[in-house]
Amino acid sequence: MKILWQREWALKVRTPAGWLYPVVFFLMVLVLFPLAAGASPKLLAQIGGAAVWIAALLSVLLGMDSLFRSDLDDGTLEQVVVARYSLPLWVLIKVAVHWLTSGFVLTLLSGLAIPLFGLSTDEASVLALGLLLGTPTLTLLAAVAAALTVSLRGSGVLVPLIALPLQLPVLVFATGAVDIVQTGGQVLPVLALLAALLILAVVLLPWAIAGALRLALAQ
Amino acid sequence: MPEPSQTAGQPSIWRRLWIWFNQTVGPRHFFMTFRPWIKWLGLIAAVLIAVGSVWGLAFAPPDYLQGNSFRIIYIHVPAASLAMSIYLALAVLGVISLVWKIKTAEWVARAAAPVGFVMCVLSLLTGAIWGKPTWGTYWVWDGRLTSMLILAFLYAGIMALYQAFENSPNQGKAAAILAIVGAVNLPIIKYSVVWWNTLHQGATFTVTAAPKMDPSMLWPLLLTFIGFYCWAAALVLYRTCTLILERERQKRWVQEWVEQESRS
């Protein structure tokens, strides 16, 4: 397992395009909001949480498309199956490394919402906590969509189309948490819900992803 | 040495049930068994929907609060219920096709997906039409409406997957996985009116208590409800039979059946 982890990590770090571009994309989408909605501080403070979340969601979807494709193409996937190594575990390692270089980075970068959108420290910390709990779930759900479409050429918009309906509850809860902080309520229940979704995703989705990958192998 | 049991040599009832099930889900048996059902289900559906709609639209008394605008319930409720039931069927059929590798289950799911999508969109549209005179707005972003919209997108994703894998023998399997993963949305829809404050009405019918709706309005609703379900069943069976004919067209029984039909 350590070897797999090291492999994924090495692959990820050595291709800057893999982890750098989604981060830049995140920042660019963040910038779109004040440009499109006008830079009034009051408005920006209201939509700050939502803007960060939408940017994070789109960035996760963008970076997910080719997660499994190179492994399918060069035969690594077949080797994992032939070696009878646990495919769900391999998937989990892969998604974890991917998250560490994308979703986690976005969580850290969400602190930029304080200067850019004028969020208070309370709101920003709830935002960051929500991102910490929510981005792994988003990544796993997008991985399901990526695994289902991995054998298709030019799947393009299909990955977001499949993944977005599944990811919407996470978005609703997480932005709801920021709203609650803004109106001064109890934020712990919503964060607990996000944590519950994360646990469900981590426990159940690797099996779905593995099933989808086996399907792609059988093509 | 123990005596041989009385039933040695004859399979148990469960074994026979399983054998019967496996035979019926074979494409040919499925086709031959269920094709006659289409006509009858369609007929029952037509009668029930006609009677229910006319009764509901013309003869049921107007609501004391909503006046006549409540009458769209006779389309809205069956359509919404069907949208959820068909999605549940997609998830169950997905499990059956993935675990037991029964091809017919994939085809029934493929046939049912567009029907469910149309029902979902219909319920959203009729709900919006109903909402305007009753709540003052076509749409509100509450739990029930948003989760039904998510259901519509899930259906769209499933249909997109079917389309993308059009030429593959594994067409149904990817969509089956998506249907199973997305089935978590169904309890959210069902309980959204319980969990969140919403404009949408709470549950009027439960299995355990007497319905809160007046019988003069309830009966036409039950009629259209069952009528819609029969109609959806007839549609799904018709589409499945067409799919069977298309996918099995190389087989001799299909060619014989087509010849027989064209002669009569």
Describe the protein's architecture and organization.
The complex is a heterodimer of chains A (219) and B (264). Chain A has helices at 2-14, 16-37, 41-64, 69-73, 76-82, 87-101, 103-109, 113-117, 121-148, 158-183, 188-218. Chain A has 219 residues and is mostly helical. Chain A has one domain (2-218). In chain A, helix 3 (41-64) runs antiparallel to helix 10, helix 6 crosses helix 9 (121-148) and helix 9 runs antiparallel to helix 10 (158-183). The longest helix of chain A is centred in the last third of the chain and has 31 residues, at 188-218. The radius of gyration of chain A is 18 Å and the shape is elongated. The relative contact order of chain A is 0.14. Chain B has helices at 13-24, 27-59, 73-99, 103-135, 143-164, 171-182, 185-195, 215-247, 252-263. The longest helix of chain B has 33 residues, at 27-59. Chain B has one domain (37-205, 212-249). In chain B, helix 5 runs antiparallel to helix 6 and helix 5 runs antiparallel to helix 7 (185-195). Chain B has 9 helices and no strands. With 264 residues, chain B is mainly α. The model of chain B has no long low-confidence stretch (mean pLDDT 84). Helices cover 74% and strands 0% of the residues of chain B. Chains A and B meet through helix 9, helix 10 and helix 11 of A and helix 5 and helix 6 of B.
What is the gist of this entry?
The complex is a heterodimer of chains A (219) and B (264). Chain A is mainly alpha-helical and 219 residues long. Chain A is built from eleven helices and no strands.
Helices and strands, with pairings:
The complex is a heterodimer of chains A (219) and B (264).
Chain A: H1 2-14, H2 16-37, H3 41-64, H4 69-73, H5 76-82, H6 87-101, H7 103-109, H8 113-117, H9 121-148, H10 158-183, H11 188-218
Chain B: H1 13-24, H2 27-59, H3 73-99, H4 103-135, H5 143-164, H6 171-182, H7 185-195, H8 215-247, H9 252-263
Helix pairs in contact in B: 2-8, 3-4, 3-6, 3-8, 4-5, 4-6, 4-8, 5-6, 5-7
